[in-house]
Design a protein that fits this description.
about 250 residues; alpha/beta; 5-stranded mixed beta sheet; 9 helices
Length: about 250
């Protein structure tokens, strides 16, 4: 089983320009993500997929692998599909599973890759998995940068939103969950994803996984036991730096 981890990253974030190279505990944030992901023993190859030479040069300077992609991608999943094709051609290899790990998840624990991939190894019918984290504060629940998700009774996603879902006004209290952007695709499903037309709710929410749901397909949500905080703003970076320094 050949498993490829791809970390999409670009300098042109509208909410935090230059985010991947922002300093975090003495090195660029993207370096923390790369180092943590690459430590997972299930992975055959780990690479950063980027349209920015600055990011690629840095990753290569620390002995990592970078793949240059086009700058036209609106969705990280589409960038990963292009990177997959490039790597397979360069390496003469066909990968079985592609794990997308967003470049703004510097608190990624190596075990989180296994948490996401193991259900696919156990169940060949699963085409895509997304880690599910706990929302532990009202501020996070109301933060539009936190992608909320609600699931059906089989742990498949029903909807992803930047709005606070589900309602908190009813009893019994429903657990509040958030998307953690560690998402393994079966290779052929990732290629199928990138051939699907972008969808209205995908565009409205700016969430890749909505394309899957709107085309009538399933995203299996798998809880993680690890805490993770994505970095969307400079304030998030300061918070994550405090959390990571405290855990060191």
């Amino acid at each position: 089983m050949k498993i490829l981890a791809l970390i999409p990253a670009r300098m042109g974030s509208s909410r935090f320009p230059g985010k991947p190279m922002a300093p975090l505990l003495g090195k660029p944030m993207i370096g923390h993500v790369y180092d943590r992901v690459a430590r997972n023993p299930l992975l055959t190859v780990t690479a950063v997929a980027t349209c920015d030479r600055e990011i690629a040069d840095y990753i290569e300077s620390i002995g990592g692998r970078a793949v240059m992609t086009g700058g036209h991608h609106e969705r990280a999943s589409d960038r990963c599909a292009e990177a997959l094709a490039i790597l397979e051609q360069e390496d003469g290899v066909t990968y079985d599973i592609v794990v997308m790990v967003q470049g703004d998840e510097p608190m990624t624990h190596p075990d989180m890759i296994s948490e996401a991939v193991n259900p696919m190894l156990a169940d060949p019918s699963l085409q895509i998995v997304n880690l599910l984290g706990k929302i532990e504060s009202t501020a996070e629940f109301e933060d539009r940068n936190c992608i909320k998700v609600v699931c059906d009774l089989q742990s498949n996603a029903l909807y992803f939103s930047r709005e606070p879902i589900p309602t908190r006004a009813k009893e019994p209290v429903v657990p509040m969950g958030k998307q953690v952007c560690i998402i393994p695709f079966r290779r052929n499903f990732l290629l199928e994803y990138t051939r699907m037309a972008p969808t209205p709710l995908e565009i409205a929410e700016s969430v890749d996984m909505m394309r899957v749901l709107e085309h009538g397909l399933k995203v299996r949500m798998v809880p993680t036991r690890h805490s993770s905080n994505a970095v969307d703003t400079p304030a998030d970076l300061a918070k994550v730096e405090q959390l990571m320094a405290g855990a060191a």
